[in-house]
Amino acid sequence: MQDILQPVLNGILLGGLYAVIAIGLSTMFGIVRLVNLAHGDLLILGSFLSLVLASSVGLSPYWTILGVVPVMYFVGFFVQGFLLNRVLGKGMEPPLLVAFGLSIILQNLLLLIFTPDARSLMTRITLMTIQVTKSLNIPVVYLLDFLAGLAVILCLYYFFQKTYLGRAIRAASDDEGAAQLMGINTKNIYAKAMGIAMMTAGIAGLLVGTTFTFYPHTGPQYLIIAFGVIVIGGFGSMKGCFVGGFILAVAQLLGAHFLGPGYQLLSGYVVLLVVLALRPQGIFGTV
Amino acid sequence: MGELIYRSRWYFLGLLVLVLATAPMWGSDYVVLFCLLFCLYLALSQMWNLLIGYSGLLSLGQQAFIGFSGYTVAVVTNYYGVYIWVSVLIGGVLSGLLALFMSLFIFRMRGVYFGIGTWIFAEALLLWFGQWEYVKYATGLFIQPRHPPSITALYYGALVIGVGAVVLVYGILRSKIGLGLMAMRDDEIVSNTMGVEVFRSKLFCFLIAALVTGLTAGVLYTYQVFIQPYKAFAIDWTVKLVFIVVIGGIGTIEGPIVGAFIYVLLSQWLAEYISVSLLILGAIAIAVILVAPKGIMGTIQERLGFEILSPRRR
User: Fold this and answer.
1) For chain B, what are the domain ranges?
2) If DSSP codes are grouped into helix, strand and coil, which group holds residue A50?
3) Is the residue at A121 inside a domain?
């Protein structure tokens, strides 16, 4: 019993990180009904941006958040404004295929620039732990991930409820025609919403970089994690994002604990497929 | 012009098949290799086209069938000494069964959920095969049949599958199921009300596509000799299929023929620049979706108003 406490605790903390990874994808799906298949690769782009900034300026990776987040806003704005907006409303496949093409381009571009070597944004904090009991430690980096995840989601919640732009985005997603009549430029709003989703992806990229190693081709892995979190939690629910993150992360770490580290990802996928088979709308989702 | 081409379409297609069938007699090894790859990619992309263009199923997990069938062929030929063409058949049948098993999970999903569900399945298979001692983990297997087929024999196998895939899709679309599929693609709810068996038709197409994809992959890996999980279950397969079908034209039978030809030609040219080849393919695909979303054949059909292999009745 004692020895499963550690993976469960780590899983809960890691769940916070998974929630940040997923929140951008979930938000964009809620607004434009588009699953951005390049989400994972854009997130890894954030990790690499942070790496470049940290190594060129010589700061701690955590400070690069000040540079990465604005840059990612513009990346998102342009991706939506110049590529995805042009194929919206032309059926299901074109936006998906454009996003898929973008994912391939990003992956190979990163591969070309940064070579396939493993990278990380490790700091002193990565190795620090807080001793709770004799056999139970809290890794500080996981705790930071969890707190950052909580902060990002609370900020996003406040943004959508209280600010003009947040309300305009919700209006555009509820009824595009009516929002246009009220003087909202919906295409522009979508681009801004994507910018905001990419800001969360930038933060997620930074956190992923400080917690794990990353490669140019790890993007799809995080897309699948994000998708898993959303499917388990239910689409369009922020609470669901958190709970989905916990379930997926705990499942992965318990799988790694009992079967060996090679089974970490696999056990997450199996849990995901089981949830899909039993409750396709997710735990907090409505049909 | 259009009418003339339409009338002479059988001669045209017959000529194409004849050229392909006699390729080993007049062509160099390089030409035969080119035609072999063309036939295999034609079959793979025609099946993906059947799914996305006619059944509304966006599968991002065709590599699950490619890898699974390739491994089946490797295992039954190496470990059990089964005759190579029989093991290719076993590979096809088993990948059809895999599709049946997958459908238990993913047929509850629609649209993009379906796509990512298939993708997750392929990723799970990749991880599983990479951890599995029986197939030598991630190091991969050499496919060593006791009587290795000659390149000509493999070529005719590929030709039968390639031409067969086109005939099969044409046949399905001209049948009652095909009518239902097209109604379903245009409006699923209405067609369901009118008595189209939506679920069964989709499942039928998914199984057929898995079966043919499995057969193709069997021939492909017999030709390539070596199979390794990180290549066999890679998303790169789906990237190639997306490229072929988007360039050629989604939802046209001629599209994958043109697309597969362009893809094989391009990939030969880009073989020297392996690091940027996927980058260029991705960029071309995006450009085509933005400029001519119906692809080459779709745009020609729209402008000139003719179809070579029309699933419609005249």
Assistant:
1) 2-304
2) helix
3) no
Cα–Cα distance, B34 to B41 (Å, whole number): 11
Sign for the pseudo-dihedral over CA of B139, B140, B145, B148: negative
**Quick count: other Cβ atoms within 10 Å of Cβ B268?**
13
ipTM (interface pTM): 0.81
Q: How many domains does chain A have?
A: 1
Distance CA B57, CA B51 (A): 5
Type of residue found at B107: F
Of A92, A105, A276, the CB nearest to B111: A92
pLDDT digits 0-9 by tens, B218-264:
999 999 999 999 999 988 899 889 889 989 998 889 899 999 999 99
Do the beta carbons of residue B233 and residue B281 sit within 8 Å? no
Angle formed at CA A103 by CA A100 and CA A108, multiple of 5 degrees: 130
Question: Position of tokens 């003009």?
Answer: A164
Closest chain A residue by Cα to residue B287: A98
Query: What CATH class does B2-304 carry?
Result: mainly alpha
Task: Give the integer Cα–Cα distance in Å for B19 and A226.
Answer: 49
Two tokens, residue A6 = 């550690």
Cα separation, A143 vs A159, in Å, equals: 24
Q: What is the residue range of A104's domain?
A: 2-114+129-278
Q: In a 3-state reduction of DSSP, which class is residue B226?
A: strand
Put simply, whether A270 touches B (Cβ < 8 Å) is yes
**Is the Cβ pair B127, A104 closer than 8 Å?**
no
Residue A151 lies in a domain: yes
* Residue type, position B41, single letter: Y
Which of A223, A242, A228, A197 minimizes the C-alpha distance to A19? A242
pTM over 0.80: yes
- Judging contacts by C-beta atoms under 8 Å, the chain B residues touching residue A97 are 242, 246, 285-286, 289
CA distance B128 to B120: 12
- pLDDT tens digits for range B254-288: 899 999 999 999 988 888 887 788 888 889 889 99
Q: Mark yes or no for CB contact B293/A92 under 8 Å.
A: no
Residue B109 touches chain A, beta carbons under 8 Å: yes
**Residue A270's domain is classified under what CATH number?**
1.10.3470
Residue A286 is assigned to a structural domain of this protein:
no
Q: Is A35 on the interface with B (CB under 8 A)?
A: yes
CA dihedral B300, B305, B311, B314 (to 10 degrees): -170
- What whole-number distance in Å separates Cα of residue B308 and Cα of residue A79? 37
In a domain, A119, yes or no: no
Of B52, B117, B131, the CB nearest to A263: B131
